[in-house]
Amino acid sequence: MNCTILTVGTELLMGQIVNTNAAFLSKELNELGINVLYHLTVGDNPDRLEKIFKDALEFSDLIITTGGLGPTQDDLTKETISNALDRELILHKPTYNKIKDFFISINREMTINNKKQAYIPHDSIVLDNEKGTAPGFIIEADEKIIISLPGPPKEMKSLFLNLVKPYLLSKSEFKIKSKIIKFFDIGESSLETALEDIITNQTNPTLATYAKDGELSLRITAKGETDEEIDGFINPIMNEVKKRLGKKIYSYNNETLEEVVAKMLIDNNITISLAESCTGGLLASKLTAISGISKALDRAIVTYSNTAKIQELNVDEIILKEHGAVSEETAAAMAQGLKTITKSDICLSITGIAGPTGGTLEKPVGLVYIGIATDKKTFIKKLSLKGDRNKIRNYTAISALNLIRKTIEMEFIN
């Protein structure tokens, strides 16, 4: 099945909002084995919308639209599709009653234009919108499928995952399943080179790589008539990837690095404390986003200034004067000082220059030291990073997570 995603809204063309809907839908459709041929965006103009919709019908089996289903005059997607397909708009009473009840519940008068949302193209499948007032709909016409979804991402995602995805799966004679392997400390080109023979000869399953914020994912997708048949396709590939690149893999189940690390800490009853400088609590924020981390995380301190490093971590002032705040020696002293104070199993420190100013020839922007102190030893990881301030801070935080993961594997599990 070949698909075109058609997003509607002048605000998208003007750059006032980012088109996250198309990215979400492409990812989901790809995992269903549906080929996304085009992303098309058109403003709130009925003539241009009708033309591009009719063009898409010529080269697509499936068209998914987002946006233009609201109550205002510039919400024209439903009307334009109905006109292009010569279908009458019919009042859908359950939707109309739902909209009326919504306005009663918030103690506001329902204006007449809100009734517009309750009109649906004749002979459509109505998609009840639990997150908003504008329903979506599905039209099956001349061996084509048109699915129209509201524009707000929260509403669109809910409708797609709960109603559209099961519908599309029911149209396939095969089941489709994906496994996602997560890597760290390997580039996309290196990953493809390591798996070149598998990728070149892929049929079923198929492999695809994705890079984002210093992390890398490999999606393995297979189709078959039963789950057992699909697993029979996927598992040998996963085993071969593990054999070749196992040391670079941190998850076989599409988990984030913070989810993996938090689970390792909790499951192994390991306590941890953090002292951050240039990341300013970003690492702590990533860990505390995971439910249950209070069982492992003792404390997190932002020791930004030299005074804070001295007062909170007992870093020797001589170390700071002789080596500077951004140094291997200071990172070690920060981690060791934190270990003495907290007695946590793992104590981690971060100090660096995130920029864009503050660097020198000897210590340029992007120079970062991460220190880890355990009962057995203290070791330091030096990073020389490129990019803007946010990129440097984020990559430092995920690098620290990966160091925690490796420390647990080396000192607490094996």
Polypeptide structure, described:
This protein is of the alpha/beta class and 414 residues long. The chain has 3 domains: 2-170, MoaB/Mog-like domain (Molybdenum Cofactor Biosythetic Enzyme, Chain A, 3-Layer(aba) Sandwich); 175-251, Alpha-Beta Plaits (2-Layer Sandwich), CATH 3.30.70.2860; 257-413, Maf protein. The protein is 42% helix and 25% strand. It is built from 15 helices and 17 strands. The strands form 4 sheets. A 6-stranded mixed beta sheet has the order 2-1-3-8-7-6, with helices on both faces. The protein has a 5-stranded mixed beta sheet with strand order 14-13-15-16-17, sandwiched between helices. A 4-stranded antiparallel beta sheet has the order 10-11-9-12. A hairpin with a 2-residue loop joins strand 7 and strand 8. Helix 2 (20-31) runs parallel beside helix 6 (153-170), helix 3 (46-59) crosses helix 4 and helix 10 (257-267) packs parallel to helix 15. It starts with a strand and ends with a helix.
Strand order of the largest sheet: 2-1-3-8-7-6
| Percent in helix | 40-55%
> CATH homologous superfamily of the largest domain - what is it?
MoaB/Mog-like domain
Number of helices: 15
Poorly predicted spans: none
User: Which CATH C-level class of the largest domain is it?
Assistant: Alpha Beta
Principal-axes shape call: elongated
What is the CA-based Rg, rounded?
Answer: 27 Å
Q: What's the architecture of the largest domain, going by CATH?
A: 3-Layer(aba) Sandwich
Largest sheet: 6 strands, mixed
- Please name the CATH topology of the largest domain: Molybdenum Cofactor Biosythetic Enzyme, Chain A
Secondary-structure class: alpha/beta
Question: What is the beta-strand fraction?
Answer: 15-25%
Question: Termini separation (Å)?
Answer: 48 Å
Counted up, domains total 3
Number of strands: 17
Mean pLDDT: 94
